[in-house]
Hints:
Largest sheet: 6 strands, antiparallel
Strand order of the largest sheet: 1-6-2-3-4-5
Distance between the termini: 20 Å
Number of helices: 0
CATH architecture: Ribbon
Shape: globular
Order of helices and strands: EEEEEE
CATH superfamily: Umud Fragment, subunit A
CATH class: Mainly Beta
Number of domains: 1
Helix content: under 10%
CATH topology: Umud Fragment, subunit A
Strand content: 35-45%
Amino acid sequence: MEPTIKDGASIIINTTRKEPADGNIYVIRIGDRLWVKRTQWLLDGGLRLNSDNDYYESMDIALGDFEHDDIEIVGQVVHTAYDLVS
């Protein structure tokens, strides 16, 4: 999610915020992987997961996919912090 969230930064997640809003950043679990992505609702009810880094392509999740146990909105990223000195 660079440049918004620096590589190696710590994040705080509000796990009560599980309903994605356009343009906010969320942690999404797909299978056994966690993704930190900016969300965008699609006209068909699906959800697009965008990265702020142009190196990574967007991922689309169909509305019906949220009914499966292998996809979960973990929560909204509400804070990030990183060390100024290594």
